[in-house]
Structures are given as C-alpha cells and as structure tokens.
From TrEMBL, chain B:
Assembly, per entry: Subunit of dynactin, a multiprotein complex part of a tripartite complex with dynein and a adapter, such as BICDL1, BICD2 or HOOK3. The dynactin complex is built around ACTR1A/ACTB filament and consists of an actin-related filament composed of a shoulder domain, a pointed end and a barbed end. Its length is defined by its flexible shoulder domain. The soulder is composed of 2 DCTN1 subunits, 4 DCTN2 and 2 DCTN3. The 4 DCNT2 (via N-terminus) bind the ACTR1A filament and act as molecular rulers to determine the length. The pointed end is important for binding dynein-dynactin cargo adapters.
Name by which UniProt lists this protein: Dynactin subunit 4
Keyword DNA damage in annotation: no
The family this protein is said to belong to: Belongs to the dynactin subunit 4 family.
Segments for region (Disordered): 340-375
Principal location listed in the UniProt entry: cytoplasm
Matching InterPro entries: DCTN4
Keywords for this protein: Acetylation, Coiled coil, Cytoplasm, Cytoskeleton, Isopeptide bond, Phosphoprotein, Ubl conjugation
Manganese is among the record's keywords: no
Transmembrane segments: none
Record localization: Cytoplasm, Cell cortex; Cytoplasm, Cytoskeleton, Microtubule organizing center, Centrosome; Cytoplasm, Cytoskeleton, Stress fiber; Cytoplasm, Myofibril
Biased composition (Low complexity): 350-375
Length: 372, 497
C-alpha cells in the first residue's frame, strides 16, 4: 500500500457478522484484521453467549452493543464516532438483526454513514468477474444465489440448513453412539474435532459407509484428548461419515448438489451454461479437505436424474478466489469500500433518523426505478 | 477493598436505567448526574505496546496495522515471545581471537516453541531483523482494487456530467445572442465536444478470473496416514495469520503483538471528559478522574437480620461521605417508573437528531471553539426503566443524617470527633468522622416462597456541592440536591410470619 494512502484519514471499517465467526477489518486491505467468534460476555448473566442466541430485540441490542464495543476497542483500536462503516450481510439476513445492528451503530456508536452490501454479490468482485453462481456454506445455512452481469438474481435463491451447525449435531450423535459416557461436549471442542480430524470423502467410499459389511478400509482412527484426562476415539468411519449429511436427500429430494442445480434451473436458458461454468464457493465450511471434489462428483451424479435432464450442462467449473474462502465475502466488501461507492450510496445519519429504517430489497418502498 | 471485586450487593441506578455498583459509575460534575460505561461515549486516547511500554502515534499505529514493530507473540499459545541468544560462532572465521558473534532466536517461555521449529534462520540483530511475510495475492488484489476504483470514479463523473447537462435548461447568454460555445468552436475549427481528460486513456483492465474444471482432490494420505494431533493446527492458531491459515504446525510463523489503547470517556450531554488516563503507558493514574466513588456517598451493608415474609427486620447500612464538604442524607421512597431527572416532553420511540447544542455556561470551552471543531454533538442514550424488581418495603425515616466532610488528617489525630451533631438515636446507631451507621426496617412482602432473593430499594438524596470554578461575583459554591436510586440485595428469605 502506498504511504500516502495509509496516512489519509479515510479508514472505513468493513464488518461481516456471521453466525459463528465475525470478520472485521479496514477497506482497501487484503485480509481482515481479525476473525473472532460471534460471542460476547453478557453483562446480566456473566456468561459467554453467542449473538445468534438472542431472546428478543432488547436482548439482541445489548449483546450487539457489547460485541461492537469489543470489536472497536480491542481489535480495531479505532473510535467509531463520525466514521463510515461497511457491513457485508447475507441477502436472507433476518430483518430484526439488520435493523438492530443499524440501530446500535447509529444511535449508540454514532457512526456517520452505513453501507450494507450483499455477500453473494461482493464476493464476485474478488474475482473481477460479473456472472457466477455463488454458494455460501456457513454455520447456520447454505445459500446459493446466482449473480448475472453484476446483479443478484434473487428469485432464484436456494437455501437449506446445511451448514456447520448440522454437521456439529451429526458429529455429536455419531460420537455418542461410539463412546459411552461423554455427553455435553462444548461446541468449541466439537468444532475442533471436526476441523482437525474430519474430511469429506469420495463418492465411491461414501456408498460403502452405510453398508453393514463395507469393502473398504476406513481411515485410521484418532484418539482425541478431552479436558486433560479423558480420551475419546474418533473412529475412521466417523471421520468420513460426518459430512455425508450434506448429500443425504431429504423428503423433498433436496441436498447441497440439487440446490445448485435448482438455482440454475430458475435462471434464463441462455445464462445457464455460463453459470454452471462459473461456480464460486465461499464460507468457512467449504475449506474442508475434499469438499470441492465431492461437490463436483455429486453435481455430475444429479445431472443424470430425469428432472435435470433438460439442463444440458456438460461441465462444471469452479473459481479459486485470491484469498481463503472464509473471508471472501469480507474481501469483496473491502474492495467496494475502497471505491467512491461509499460516499455515493451509503445511508447517512440524517437520513436514517428521518426514516428510522434501512433500505431493504423485500420492501416495496425501496423498489422503484430511478431515472439515471 | 474486597467489596470492589466481590458480589454486587449494593447497586445504584444510573441515569440511563442500568444498575451498577459504585465502582463502575462516573459522576459528571457539569450535569450533576451519574453516568455509567453504557451511557458515556468511549474514545481511543493513545496507542501503546503492552510489552515494550512504548507509545505510538496514531498515524504510525495505523500504518503498522495496530501491531508493535518489535514484539512478537507465539503462534502456538499466543503468549509473548522473548529473544534469546543462540549459538555463537566467531564473527570473523579467519581470526580465532575475534569475539564470538551472537545469533538471536525467538523462543516462547510457556509452550517451548521457538523460531527454529519453523525454519527461520537466526538473526544477528537483536530486534527488527525478522522477515515479514507478504500476502501471496497482493498484486492481483491491488489490480482488482484499482480497476474497481476507476470504474466507480468514472460512473460518478458520468453522473455529475449528466446532472450538469440537466441543469443546462437555463439558457446561457451566448445562446440568447445566437452564438453558443459549440458554434464558436465549430467556426474556429476546434472539435465541438471537449474530450474529458480522464476518459482519454483507459488503464489496462486486469482480466477476470478463469474458472477451472479441475478441482483439488482429496489428499490420499488422509485416508491412510494416522493423524498426529500435535501437528495439526487448531482454529485459533490458524486465525492468527488470516491470509495463510496454515493447517500444519511447521508453517506457523510468529505474529506481531497487537497494541493496546488508553480510552477516554466523555459525557454525552455536556461533552466534557469524565475519565481521561495519563499518556504514559506505565502509569495507571488519570488526568481527569470523575468517578462516582469520590463524589457520591457510598453505601455498604453492615448487618441484616434474617428476613421473614411480612415481618420487619433490622438493616444497618453504612454511609461514607467522600467529599470535602458537609452533606445531608435524606432517605426517600423509591420511584421505579421513570427517572426523576427524565425529560418531560414526549419524544416517542424515535430519537430525533439533536440540534446544535450549546454547552452549559459552566463549560470551560468557549462556544466559538466548539463550532470550529468538526465533532457532531452526541446523541444521549434514552433512559430505560429499571429492570430490577423490588420485593421488600423500606420504612422511610423522617429525620435526616448529617455527614461531616472527609478529613484525611483525622486518622492521625486522636482528639476525637468534635462535630457535635444531634442525631436521632433510633436512626443513627454509630458515627465516626465522615461515616455513619444508619438503622432501617425492611419488611419483605407477603406471599414470597422460601429462599427467594430479597431486594430492597430506596432513593438517597444527598446535597452535592459543586466545586467547579465559579464566577468572581459568587464565591459560594452552589449546593443542590441530588437523588440516586439504590438497590440492596439482602439475601434469601429464611422463614414466614
């Protein structure tokens, strides 16, 4: 970064609050300053609570006030007053959450301007491309939204609760059936087991996992120490089987691979091939070893079904973003924040207090054509 | 002082409605109101490194990404790394008499990690020699950022140009006379439209990313090799180096230590500082120190009789006057709904944008200076109703308690208390210099279950003497009453009536 840019006062904060992790940094930089868990010490109960475990609006307000305080005064070391901020959020973010976040930022921390960016759209800017099918697999859910010529095609949205949360629950159930006596392992321990021991296996092996007498030899088991005294065994079968839940079709025959194909089906015919050849995967869950290879195998397997015969797609091509997938959306926000877009399109404090709400895509008041 | 870190038994209600113990409250002298960490405005005062205790100017801190240039933390356990002297070889290999050259390496005293584990060669300089790693994709990302910046700038200029063209509804003078600028240029022979300088040369655009059909396969060794948990990194270790996020331990490099800040607090309604620490990182003192502990009488519970539902129990509390002026304490009944000092007008649910507020006349900053600063006036936090439920009644005494001023020399002086204050013996049980024990009767409400926590509350009114520099005409510092709602957690219900 050239020196003159760094010394200017135009530091814009870029924030991506996820269900499990929050990415926080400054615009124009290539990586966030910190990626921390989205949890904070609640003042009333004096326990650490996750932001997504809020009970009502007032509770969420207090949690967000404490959380944003930690972000600014422990990690960014920056005063929020009278400074702009860019927030990257999912297009399917609940209205209560985004309105409360805006209220916290404007009323309590007195920021000057707020720009909300959709994560699927800005993730593309890291590639320099304009058309792609973006799949975000996070903690809470997996959302696929195609972006064509720089516009997210919202009516083609697909979302399933196939994120890390369901994988943690699956791992807990599998471990409980193997090891007796371990109950109520904390979430951080389960996450650690998942990250260090488990992976997504190949399609051929996956079919053998549920058979009574499998023909393959499983991966070696791992002895995982807990609490300094106990050791639990993570068997090879568990290591490979944990992620299978992503590809188990539910009652509506939906799973991760059908999600992408359904999203492609809802788009215009002449864009379908282009989308299939430009798939971008973002989100922390995507960083598991073997994820991309298995997704490609599953997509080809689903193509053979009757309902996708009309798609006539021959190949799937994946993008590699110039960063790790768990902060790709943040990086897109940082790129947007470095341009003049902030001064053009951000919501200023005066306008927020006049309207007292954020512009939102489902709200018809914001969906009128402007004369360009 | 153990009561500071012990359970919060005595809580005061701040003006914003939150309940805090006296050690977490501030007192704004200009507004004469209690403030807490929630309702003041926090600001970053100065940056410093916790290990080398050096101050850094904010511009340099921004440049170095809020990290110290000299200190490192261990990537394995996130504790501080110390520089140790390693092997010493002779500095001049030919001359055997030369002094041995000292080579330094980084080592963690807690988890025994060292810089030699990841293959960093030992440095000959004690500080500042360690190599810094750069982001692999920096060039590509820089190109992308430049491209988008240029694109948005072009769009912005296009919009402004369109706006100007729209405003061209108004005829210019040359139009009325029939000689427009364009016609004139045509006559002379110059091109009609002026080429915008920025539109002439378009910078080279970086090519968009190409998607590849081949994806990285599952590495085969995961299926066959046994996992050694000590070699795989945990998520916390990976997130220390965000652009690398290594999965194996041998790629964990030391990270620069993050800086700490000194925070100054400011009252939102009068814009005066409530707490301002000293600049020196080694000092724990404050330049401005308006803590409630030094201005508001402190209440501590001395004894309480076992509580029974419906029966009055004796409660003895101790009042301490921390100021240099005499104060009178009156105990009034508690008013839970709304604050006594709340703004009377109905503002509804929406906070309106505050108009340019002029600070009160007691302020030290002249109003002309305030308008010059670019700071917007703060939005005061809307007070919320106190969420604590009170389930015991306090018998309100009719007499007042006079507390003499605090006298620091009194503990060395054995001449005794010469204040001669006439007290109601049923109210004031014991007295010494600026402290007094007061007896109150507390009656828990009927119908409560056994072992419910009993919370009693009352409003304490004390006379606060304002010590801000007064005007020349009036030498008397002005006194006025200040009401504070106090909530006492008295323990569990023992029995019934």
């Amino acid at each position: 970064m050239p020196i003159y840019e760094a010394l200017s006062d135009k530091l814009t904060v870029v924030l991506d609050v996820g269900s499990a992790y929050t990415k926080f940094g400054f615009s124009g930089e290539y990586a966030p300053r910190c990626i921390i868990r989205s949890e904070v010490r609640c003042k009333k109960t004096n326990t650490i609570r996750r932001i997504i475990d809020y009970e009502n609006e007032k509770d969420l307000y207090d949690l967000l006030v404490d959380f944003v305080h930690v972000l600014y005064f422990k990690y960014a070391l920056f005063s929020p007053k009278d400074k702009p901020i860019v927030v990257v959020e999912s297009l399917l973010c609940p209205t209560l959450f985004r309105e409360t976040l805006a209220k916290v930022l404007f009323e309590h921390y007195e920021i000057s301007m707020l720009l909300m960016l959709p994560s699927h759209l800005v993730g593309l800017s890291t590639l320099g491309a304009e058309t792609a099918l973006v799949l975000d697999v996070g903690y809470f859910e997996a959302v696929a939204i195609p972006v064509c010529h720089g516009l997210p095609v919202i009516h083609a949205w697909q979302a399933l609760p196939l994120g890390s949360q369901i994988i943690h629950n699956n791992l807990r159930a599998l471990l409980n059936s193997d090891n007796t006596g371990i109950n109520n392992l904390p979430e951080s321990v389960i996450e650690d087991i998942k990250v260090r021991c488990c992976f997504v296996t190949k399609q051929k092996r996956a079919a053998q996992l549920s058979v009574a007498k499998p023909e393959i030899t499983f991966a070696p088991e791992v002895k995982y120490p807990i609490g300094g005294s106990e050791i639990i065994t993570v068997s090879g079968k568990v290591r490979e089987k944990v992620y299978e839940i992503l590809y188990d079709e539910d009652n509506d025959h939906l799973c991760l691979s059908t999600m992408l194909l359904d999203a492609i089906t809802k788009v215009d015919i002449h864009l379908r091939n282009k989308l299939a050849e430009n798939i971008l995967l973002i989100g922390g869950t995507v960083m598991v070893p073997g994820f991309k290879a298995r997704l490609k195998e599953e997509l080809h397997k689903q193509l053979k079904h009757d309902r996708y015969k009309k798609l006539k797609i021959s190949s799937f091509k994946f993008h590699t973003p110039p960063c790790k997938e768990n902060y790709t959306a943040w990086l897109g926000g940082a790129i947007y924040g470095a341009t003049e877009l902030l001064s053009m399109k951000a919501l200023t404090r005066e306008k927020y207090f006049k309207e007292n709400r954020l512009p939102d895509w489902p709200n018809m008041r914001d969906n009128f054509r402007t004369n360009n | 002082m153990a009561h500071v870190v012990g359970p919060e038994v005595v809580k005061y209600a701040c003006t914003c409605g939150l309940l805090k113990s006296i050690s977490s409250l501030y007192f704004c002298r200009y507004c004469c109101q209690l403030r807490c960490g929630f309702c003041v405005c926090h600001e970053v005062d100065s940056h410093f490194c916790g290990k080398c205790c050096e101050n850094l100017p904010s511009s340099e801190a921004r440049l170095k990404k809020n990290r110290c240039g000299n200190c490192y933390i261990c990537p394995s356990c996130q504790q501080e790394l110390s520089t140790r002297i390693g092997s010493k070889g002779p500095s001049n290999p030919e001359d055997p008499k030369s002094t041995p050259k000292k080579m330094y390496y980084l080592s963690c005293l807690y988890c025994r990690w060292s810089s030699r584990d990841v293959g960093i060669p030992d440095q000959s300089a004690a500080t500042g020699g360690w190599p810094d790693r750069e982001n692999v994709n920096a060039n590509r990302l820089q190109e992308i950022i430049e491209m988008y910046k240029a694109m948005v700038l072009a769009e912005k200029q296009q919009k402004e140009k369109d706006k100007k063209k729209q405003r061209g509804k108004y005829l210019s003078y040359t139009d009325r006379t029939g000689v427009t600028a364009a016609a004139l240029r045509k006559r002379i022979g110059l091109p009609v439209d002026i080429q915008h300088s920025l539109l002439k040369a378009k910078p080279k655009e970086p090519e968009p990313a190409i998607a590849k059909e081949d994806v990285e396969d599952l590495p085969e060794e995961l299926l066959t090799k046994p996992v050694n948990l000590t070699e795989v990194t945990t998520i916390e270790q990976r997130l220390l180096q965000i652009d690398l996020q290594p999965t194996t331990v041998e790629k964990l490099f030391p990270v620069h230590k993050q800086l700490s800040i000194k925070r100054s607090l400011r009252c939102r309604s009068c814009e005066h500082n409530v707490s301002k620490p000293e600049y020196n990182p080694n000092s724990v003192k404050f330049k401005i120190q308006l803590f409630a502990y030094y201005h508001v009488p402190e209440i501590r519970i001395v004894t309480v009789e076992p509580l029974r539902a419906g029966r009055p129990s004796e409660l003895i509390i101790k009042f301490t006057n921390p100021t240099q002026h005499q104060t009178t304490i009156t105990i009034l009944s508690l008013v839970l709904s709304g604050d006594e000092n709340e703004v009377k007008e109905e503002t509804g649910d929406q906070p309106s944008l505050p108009q340019e507020k002029q600070p009160p006349s007691l302020s030290s900053q002249p109003s002309s200076l305030l308008s010059l600063s670019s700071r917007q006036p703060s939005i005061t936090i809307k007070p919320r109703p106190v969420s604590q439920e009170v389930n015991a009644d306090v018998a309100i005494p009719s007499s007042k308690v006079i507390l003499p001023p605090r006298d620091d020399a009194a503990e060395y002086d054995d001449s005794g208390d010469t204040h001669n204050i006439q007290d109601d013996p049923k109210l004031v049980v014991w007295r010494k210099s600026n402290k007094a024990f007061v007896k109150l009767l507390v009656t828990p409400k009927q119908g409560l279950a056994l072992n419910t926590e009993i919370v009693a509350g009352f409003t304490m009114q004390h006379i606060y003497t304002n010590t801000i520099a007064t005007t020349v005409e009036n030498r008397e510092p002005d006194k006025h009453d200040h009401n504070i709602r106090v909530f006492l957690t008295l323990g569990n219900l023992v029995g019934f009536d």
